[in-house]
Amino acid sequence: MPQMLRSILIIFLLVLTACGNPADESMPTVQEPPPEAKGFYCGMSLAEHPGPKGQLHMAGETQPLWFSSVHDAMAYLQLEGATRRIRAFYVHDMAKADWNKPQPGTWIDAQKSWFVLGSKRLGGMGGSEVVPFATQSQAETFAKEHGGRVLDYAAMRKKEMFPAQSGPEK
């Protein structure tokens, strides 16, 4: 009996190891939006909107969800179960990107970013924008010039800041 129990335990451990971290669970790399990329909520071309954009890479999907504003991407995170499926979240570093047309190569990991909330700068849909930066000091400099308050990613994720949205506009 002990030999059989040992065999079952070894098989169980092998199965657990096989179910561990598959190779496709690595963090997806940043993508540049193709010319036809459309905002998840508004359905309009990303290129038509100024300000920082967001891209969310979801488990089981090969293409990211594109957002015409970081505010919209943060609101999406409030949907029930959304964060369980997120593999990566990238935003433009507005210390490096042009406000009117953020250029390629200016994406940063949103979860390591600093944000200015409530500034005078308007985002992609003409509303108040969440403005991301790679460093706290860059965010503070922007806030001194344009108003707003500086928050890290954890503070930005508080539910009361972004009421959930129901999904894409039709």
Task: Tell me, rounded to a whole number, the average pLDDT.
Answer: 83
Sheet with the most strands: spatial strand order: 2-1-3-4
Overall domain count = 1
What's the CATH topology label?
Alpha-Beta Plaits
Derived structural class: alpha+beta
Question: Which percent bin holds the helix content?
Answer: 25-40%
Tell me what the CATH architecture is.
2-Layer Sandwich
The biggest beta sheet reads: 4 strands, antiparallel
The top-level CATH class is Alpha Beta
End-to-end C-alpha gap: 63 Å
Order of helices and strands: HEEHHEEEEHEH
Overall number of strands: 7
Determine the strand fraction and express it as a percent band. 15-25%
Shape: globular
Number of helices: 5
Radius of gyration: 20 Å
Low-pLDDT ranges: 12-24, 164-170
Task: Tell me about this structure.
Helices cover 25% and strands 22% of the residues. It has 170 residues and is an alpha+beta fold. The chain has a single domain (36-161), classed as 2-Layer Sandwich (Alpha-Beta Plaits), CATH 3.30.70.2060.
